[in-house]
């Protein structure tokens, strides 16, 4: 902070008056010169004399301050094998100068996540994008820019940053991957170029623009370190699918439908039951493929009935989706399977 002053004096009675530039709000731009002038009016022997003045000028120093905040207040729900899962953060330059900000996304290794949960896996292919449209969270798209820093962020300005990652396929409902985004202030530098690291001024006030770190403590960084961090996490919501298959002899050439046996020529009905465990995600486009045993022949007159209701371990004859058979393989698709629900597929063969 640079200061200059000037004072002129004279004897006699006087009146002190001060004039100054208007007081500026917190956040005055660094490098701004603030001048204050005092005026002294006085008389000698009852006669007014020429007023004298003194001025003081100081230069506003640089305050380095920033915040990083998770967008929203809940975890980001993801699915196993999901690509480009997005969580969003807002980076705000609360300094009194234009700055660059280096960005880094780090994975947590165990411990508490951001939402009363516990980190137990890592996402992959982690990268950072800057919101190109200003639409904010939920708007991630091809127009957004892959970045490692924010360039020339003005004082009091904010930018939305997306942390994007892929989720491994072998995760189950409730698994959590915590990630931390850290922004570190850098010298503004030239547009398009990340500025250099900033050093806080030590010792006494200087005649130039001094630097003071004024940031608070973030999720993983300390107060007054020129950086700020915030945490968010991905929580897996998976569909836990199980399948069972059973067969029932419907008839045979000798006993008909009375206590039929699995002899050549007998008709056998297969029941395939697909279950989705409670508490998980809806399973969509559940595709069933079932190659027929070589010792059997598909009974085309019965067809394939899919999406049937299930009672216990039995497929009910109320399917509303028709499957197919081609080249010895039965196929069917159940459009949706809700958590806690079970659906069946029925078809018949004859024993060769």
Explained architecture:
With 352 residues, the protein is an all-beta fold. The chain has strands spanning 3-5, 13-20, 33-44, 47-48, 52-59, 62-64, 66-70, 76-78, 85-93, 99-107, 124-130, 145-146, 149-153, 158-166, 176-186, 211-213, 227-236, 241-251, 267-276, 283-291, 296-298, 304-308, 310-311, 314-315, 321-322, 324-326, 329-337, 342-351. 0% of the residues lie in helices and 50% in strands. Strands 18, 19, 21, 22, 25 and 28 form a six-stranded antiparallel beta sheet that branches. 29% of the residues are buried. It is rod-shaped and about 140 Å long. It folds into three domains: 3-60, no CATH class; 64-236, Immunoglobulin-like (Sandwich); 241-351, Immunoglobulin-like (Sandwich), CATH 2.60.40.
Short structural description:
The chain is mainly β.
Number of strands: 28
Q: What CATH architecture of the largest domain would you give?
A: Sandwich
Structural class: mainly beta
Low-confidence stretches: 1-12, 14-26
Count of runs of 4 or more consecutive helical residues: 0
Helix and strand succession? EEEEEEEEEEEEEEEEEEEEEEEEEEEE
| Major beta sheet summary | 6 strands, antiparallel
Write down the Rg. 37 Å
Overall body shape:
rod-shaped
Name of the CATH class of the largest domain: Mainly Beta
**Mean pLDDT reading:** 91
Number of domains: 3
Percent helix: under 10%
Strand content: over 45%
Topology-level CATH name of the largest domain:
Immunoglobulin-like
What distance separates the N and C termini?
98 Å
